[in-house]
Design brief:
By secondary structure, the protein is α/β, with parallel strands linked by helices. Helices cover about 40% and strands about 10% of the residues. The strands form 5 sheets. A 5-stranded mixed β-sheet has the order 4-3-5-14-8, with helices on one face. A 4-stranded mixed β-sheet has the order 10-11-9-12. It starts with a helix and ends with a helix.
């Protein structure tokens, strides 16, 4: 134990900059190599060969430190670079947009979180890029995102009135808009997909569809399945957000008011929720998030009995997957049935435009078409997330009982009071939380640390990351 603590202390006190620089070099090499591959297809869809360039940065003109797209040499079209996921933007969709907009060519680049981190650090950004649920506020503060408020106001394709209020808030900072959500991340991201065949094989009764489980009942269910199979039975897709949602239901939090410090110690509500997930992990009833590879395929194949995720996840269960016909969706669990139910709102994935783009009009035209045009209608018909526009909700699938049940769960969540989860002003909070949880859970499962040390380590790791972010923010302000 003393050796472990000594190693941990040396890791804490080592200067971060040389390590980060080394990691950045390796990640760049790996990312560029990875981007040369075709994008991963959506489940059940064939791989489509890309004809666009897939290496970033592309050949282009540099102005200052920013990559600038230039007209293609074969014609006089303007090239708009777009970095998103290959299973969210198909070759056919690109061709259709270009046919409708003959002055514009789309250069697709496969999204990579590691690569995006490096491009954000250097401000070598594509015109359009994908952002996750909680990443945009700090980028607005740094001046990296284009304000599109006036463009939305003059749009003929969408308006703020077409969106649900929480959806518009996803891309709003101080009343200005800095992107468009790909859809509504309905407040059901803590809902439970349950494999009914797994319950039947284990001789466990199916929970009610019209009443939420408590988290205690969820733990009993997962533990009973694990006892029968000898394998973890539960996985939470947005783990830190799920933990935070359980705290929000109880009126609790893990941080001080300005998020300058994580405050787990001497915080009974936070420690109780933390201990709940710690126990699930240590006893082996829960896969350790977020470092479990292939978890979506385990769900499709019927190997994962309980998956906690949103409406969109149901799309991966197709007639070609073993889980098809054996999955249903339960309401989001609650910590205590005596407390009022709330919809803990996660926030949605969005497309944003770089503030240094040379082609903001064409870039906006593309993201508007993608989130409110034909691609959005196609996603709605597949049930790949809730659509951005209310009018497209009628397109959501309802052919099977599974489709109808997950639609009932999503619509139920939209009737509840919205409790928006905190958006962290420091970008390294989530990565530090996830990395610390994974590392310390491995130590806990091996018996090398107990819960008290686990919680202390988690708090210290996150607070070190916050201090680094605060130092970087101060350094940028001094330039």
């Amino acid at each position: 134990m003393a050796a472990d603590e000594g190693l941990r202390e040396r890791e804490r006190r080592s200067p971060w900059l040389p390590v980060l620089l080394s990691i950045a070099i390796v990640v760049c090499a790996l990312a560029f190599a990875r981007l040369a591959l075709p994008p991963a297809p959506h489940a059940g869809e064939p791989v489509k060969k890309r004809t666009e360039s897939s290496v970033w940065p592309p050949t282009g003109k540099r102005v200052g430190s920013s990559v600038r797209a230039t007209p293609d040499r074969a014609d006089d079209r303007i090239t708009v670079s777009v970095m998103t996921l290959g299973n969210e933007l198909t070759h056919e969709q690109i061709a259709e947009f270009e046919a409708q907009n003959p002055d514009t060519r789309i250069a697709f680049f496969e999204h990579s979180s590691n690569l995006l981190d490096i491009l954000l650090a250097t401000n070598d950004l594509p015109d359009v890029f994908r952002l996750g649920q909680v990443e945009d506020h700090s980028l607005v503060e740094r001046g990296l995102l284009l304000d599109i408020t006036d463009r939305i106001a003059h749009s003929k394709l969408l308006s703020l009135a077409d969106m649900r209020g929480e959806t518009a808030a996803d891309v709003s900072v101080d009343g200005r808009y800095y992107g468009l959500p790909q859809g509504l991340s309905t407040p059901d991201f803590t809902s439970l997909y349950v494999n009914t065949a797994a319950l039947e094989r284990a001789g466990i009764p199916m929970p009610r569809l019209d009443e939420p489980l408590t988290y205690a009942e969820l733990a009993e269910l997962a533990s009973a399945l694990t006892a029968k199979t000898g394998r973890p039975a539960f996985y939470s897709y947005f783990f830190e957000r799920t933990l935070t949602a359980a705290l929000v239901q109880r009126g609790g939090r893990m941080f001080n008011d300005d998020f300058s410090a994580m405050t787990l110690i001497d915080n009974p509500k936070a420690l109780e929720v933390l201990r709940y997930f710690y126990d699930l992990g240590v006893t082996g009833a829960m896969y350790i998030p977020p470092a479990t590879p292939g978890i979506a395929f385990m769900f499709e194949n019927g190997e994962l009995p309980i998956s906690q995720s949103g409406y969109w996840m149901g799309t991966v269960v197709t007639p070609a997957t073993p889980a098809y016909g054996h999955v249903t969706m339960l309401l989001p669990p609650v910590w205590d049935r005596r407390l009022p139910r709330v919809a803990s709102y996660l926030g949605g994935t969005k497309l944003v435009i770089s503030s240094t783009s040379n082609h903001p009009d064409q870039a906006y035209r593309f993201i508007e078409w993608y989130v409110a045009g034909k691609p959005a209608a196609e996603r709605a018909r597949r049930g790949w997330g809730f659509p951005l526009l209310r009018a497209m909700e009628a397109l959501l699938p309802s052919e099977t009982e599974f489709d109808r049940q997950r639609l009932r769960v999503a619509l139920d969540s939209l009737k509840l009071p919205v409790a928006r989860l905190p958006l962290y002003p420091y970008p390294d909070i989530l990565p530090a939380f996830n990395q610390s949880w994974t590392r310390n859970m491995a130590l806990a499962k091996s018996g090398r640390i107990k819960f008290e040390v686990f919680a202390s380590n988690l708090q210290e790791d996150v607070n070190l990351a916050i201090q680094d972010d605060m130092t970087s923010r101060h350094a940028r302000a001094q330039r």
